[in-house]
Specification:
alpha/beta, Rossmann fold, 9 strands
């Protein structure tokens, strides 16, 4: 199984895209998640079970692997404890490369869960690449914002008027695939879309694509968090959301970089193009 990459979180936004991107580069993939039966059969893709609460599943997932694409469970403050055994096992097995999906701005807080994971990867002795994307465009099409748009013709968030340089998960995956193929060791890439938009602008773009008015409703932080609680989001994840959207309101997510193009040679996806490609999600 030479040149096989373990892709964790293979049913998530970026994990699913990474499976496609790295196989297109000629790698084979072990696509890992808790329920591998959800992963469709494909050439050069082997679904495998990986449950962080079951150490035995880690041994099976990493068997025969030479590289790891590592994605933390979303909004999980306990992620360091879950991912450190993966990193330690990768070191013990003499893996060639770990590509970690972190997040924009985590280097500003040494206590942030993703920053703790970054340090674990960097200190592992395994060649590494760190990707720090901003918020995913897919949050609007298949993520938690999608039902708001489809069912209520609105976006209800405590983002204020802050701008975000939204990125498509496919662009993050393309950078990861290039990092593996070109051995971009020891590199940190902050990944953004081509421009920064506030949620009023996002709503206008989606409106123009779906042919009906989509409105952005600015919520107070407490109203947004209470809504998340009522939707069954765990309290630890609710607190994580509070930190993320405080950063949006403060303007910290408006940074735009050219890292996607520098690594892949291609411009990142615009939100307009993303919306046109995903308009069926909001019908």
């Amino acid at each position: 199984m030479k040149n096989t990459i373990l892709v964790t979180g293979a049913t998530g936004h970026v994990g699913k895209a990474a499976v496609e991107a790295v196989t297109a580069k000629g790698f084979r993939v072990k696509a890992a998640c808790r329920h591998p039966d959800k992963i469709p059969a494909a050439r050069d893709v082997q679904p495998v079970r990986l449950d962080y609460s079951d150490p035995a599943s880690l041994d099976g997932a990493l068997a025969g692997v030479t590289r790891v694409f590592l994605v933390a469970p979303p909004l999980d403050p306990e992620a360091p404890g879950k991912l450190k055994p993966v990193i330690e096992k990768a070191k013990a097995l003499h893996m060639e490369h770990i590509v970690l999906v972190s997040a924009m701005g985590v280097d500003q807080d040494e206590r942030a869960p993703l920053r703790i994971i970054e340090h674990a990867v960097m200190d592992s002795g395994v060649h590494w690449t760190i990707l720090r994307p901003t918020f995913f465009m897919e949050n609007f099409s298949t993520g938690f914002v999608a039902p708001m748009i489809k069912e209520q013709s609105g976006i209800f968030l405590a983002a204020g008027s802050g701008k975000t340089s939204f990125i498509s998960a496919k662009d993050v995956a393309a950078v990861a695939a290039s990092a593996f193929a070109d051995q971009l060791f020891g590199k940190v890439h902050t990944l953004t879309g081509p421009n920064a938009l506030d949620h009023e602008e996002v709503a206008r773009i989606v409106s123009s694509v779906v042919g009906r008015e989509i409105r952005y409703h600015t919520l107070s932080e407490e109203a947004m968090l209470q809504g998340a609680r009522e939707a069954g989001v765990p309290e630890s994840a609710v607190r994580y959301m509070a930190v993320l959207y405080a950063a949006v309101r403060a303007g910290y997510t408006a940074q735009v970089t050219d890292d996607v193009k520098r690594v892949t040679g291609k411009d990142p996806t615009t939100f307009e193009a993303f919306a046109r490609a995903n308009k069926d999600a909001w019908k």
